[in-house]
Amino acid sequence: MTAKGFSALPLHERIRQDIETRIISGTLRPGDRIPSELELMARYGCARMTVNKALSALATRGLLERRKRAGTFVARPRTVAMVLDVPDLGSAVTARGQVYAFRLLDRQISDTARDRQAAADLGDVGRVMRLTGLHLADGVAFALEERLINLALVPAIEPVDFSTEPPGTWLLRHIPWTEAENRIGALAASRAQAKVLGISPGDACLAIERRTWRGADSVTVVRQTFVAGSHELVARFGPAGGSPARISAAAAAMTSAIGTSSA
Amino acid sequence: MTAKGFSALPLHERIRQDIETRIISGTLRPGDRIPSELELMARYGCARMTVNKALSALATRGLLERRKRAGTFVARPRTVAMVLDVPDLGSAVTARGQVYAFRLLDRQISDTARDRQAAADLGDVGRVMRLTGLHLADGVAFALEERLINLALVPAIEPVDFSTEPPGTWLLRHIPWTEAENRIGALAASRAQAKVLGISPGDACLAIERRTWRGADSVTVVRQTFVAGSHELVARFGPAGGSPARISAAAAAMTSAIGTSSA
DNA sequence: CAGTGGTCTAGACCACTGA
DNA sequence: CAGTGGTCTAGACCACTGA
Fold it and tell me: Does domain B79-262 have CATH number 3.40.50.20?
């Protein structure tokens, strides 16, 4: 496994972890100045670029703040920005050991010229597809999905039958979106929502509204309404240096904590 | 060589944006191979390190995938990892033009040796402080907060009076946490929760459970229960190159979309 | 003014892995 | 095997800005 005896990690990575450890342990405190690149070159016996790479990475991740002439400082805790994992619903259900299914309830082709709500959601894009469907775990509906898709941008989706793959997964596999926004809140189920979800009107639900763009163009807008307790979002922040994939795996490995209903 | 008069941006940044633009516009599609570093050196007339910096940044952000010998490829859209902004509640309320206040309802000192729930939440850390309080906007309670704090790690908080500053803000200003986890769900208000929040039992609420660590030690665990419609979380993903701060500002500038209750 | 970080060069050796 | 990316060197010039 180890090729070269001792250097399992590249030098810039070891420098990065070294400094990070001092911040975590409290040896370096917020506001403290850390040695200049010149000093660190001498300490680690390496070129300035190598030190720079380590410090730049820590600055990008918000642990350090760099100011010209003044030096490099341990950053003060900032307004919190966490990494939110938005898993594919099918994968999430399967990971819980349940059987996932999507049931399409309704599909309509519309046009933003006539459909005011679609125009508000996607802009004046022309033809749109409006989908309504249910996400099921072990045959039980746990989320209602209402989605609009910009057909001008995604014409290939028009003939797709969503019996094998829900629209979100299809889009994820086919359309490289570049920007997305999620809004997360709670709401009381409406009469219509309650009916298809098999709950009572007024019951608590988690609501996610997600908009996706490709460049300046709207790809899709989706509103998902989850029965309370059936779904949980996890957001993390950590200096563990995790790639999104690793963070996602770590979150999936954890067990639930909020509203554990033993039913 | 480089036309030196016009470089508002560093060269590595221009190369990054150039390639990013091709991905966004669809000129480069998922799975496409992009030129090797050697070829890009020639194209941009620069050193390999400069090209490498641009490509590494895009790989870190998940837009490119790099494989030795094979080359660099436009990444396929991955499982979604978004940046979730977790704003200070006081700032969020003030930003909406309302007056924020925190009202402490209860404060107890306990010990994980006797307090089983505290031990489960924080680990066997010894003395803990248990706080219960309300977040108010224009004098109306919109969130209930129940918090445990590890006093061994944060002894300075013991005498603090939270009349001017809620516990979360105090902690953010004083304790450099290194890791945090949020769990977000919906729940129906219990009788006790409903009473202090001025709503009815069973009413929909947004629930956030946040755990914060400093290195291996738990700092605090907090459960916040928001009246439905009173609070919304926003998570974004975008190639706009936004720092967390910029993303946060952009999110704050947007108006609500989910469950706007005029009550 | 002088030290700092930001950027860039023109090389180099290496590990990896697909043709 | 040969091309690729990963890393690193030992320099350089520059803009910025606090002492």
Answer: no
